[in-house]
Input
Amino acid sequence: MQLRSLLAKFDGLAAFLQSPLLLVIRLYWGISFAQTGWGKLMNLDRTTEFFTSLHLPMPRLNAIAAGSTECFGGVLLALGLFARPAAVPLTFCMIVAYATADKEALLGIFSAPDKFLGADPFLFLFAALLVLAFGPGKLSLDALLARKTAAK
Output
């Protein structure tokens, strides 16, 4: 019986850490997404050249789309505002990044997992998937809006 009580307390403490951890993930990776996207948009010619070298169709339009998705999606992620919906295009963007710029790492997901895990898109993708799966947490604008809506 003592062990169950200790486990229950431990579970309570671990659950308490969920929202602060999600906040840290959202802030760090949301700001990182926003900075990366902003960089793409502010250096559109260079980004377009890079996308052209990857043989992407309509490279300028795709550069604008990717930069905008990362910049504005990152801001929403950091704020925890429409965080789950924002995580969807961010996830898609990182999958496309893997499929185009890090194709070798993507193809080696099982044969060379270190290459897959070390590729630039991995942590961005992982952060977006965490927020998509678990939500933004209690320390977010989504949670604040939900509380205000429930109070009415």
